[in-house]
Amino acid sequence: FTLTREKINNISAYVNYDGQTAIITVTRFDKNTGTIVQNIAKEFSSKNINKVILDLRNNGGGYVDSAITMLSLWLDNSVALIQKSKHHGTTESKTPSNQAILKDYKTVVLVNNFSASASEIVAGALKDHKKATLIGEKTFGKGVVQSLFELSDGENLKVTTARWYTPLGHSINKTGIEPDQTVHRSFDDINDNKDPQLDAAKNL
Questions:
Q1: Which helix (H) or strand (E) holds 54?
Q2: What is the pTM of this model?
Q3: Active site residue 12
């Protein structure tokens, strides 16, 4: 066989439209994810969108900064998360100002037990600030921050450096975030191409 190596363009966020509802699916939080979603949101006014469904199911997380960038679409200069560490004490991370173009949009967030880390930061902040309704299943429960340190031999060491909490001070580590409305999606649903969680979000 002759194989040709090509660059894979696996985008981390994309949008589908169902009438006046925008369904944003975020598969992970890489360095560009927040900016991608911001660019998607800028199209909504011209498309007469009045409702947003943010699908964070099966999203294992990624960069905290990308999560905060995304939250700035709904939260204007508001606390996104609280971090507590042994060496740096307690710090608050806030969203930037004057970027919350979705703050008045009806928003539903889809989560499941594979929504973790940065996904939980977004879901937890939107829930605490009452900017969204969460539908689905309880999230994974990863409430710690990890940092990468490069060693002298070129290897990397990942170390837990802090715990994070939602804006109202809730720890989700090992407990997860309970949705406002619990809706299960079974393997049979998946095999039959049924999505009761998305259906519930559309009907809310």
A1: strand 51-55
A2: 0.91
A3: no
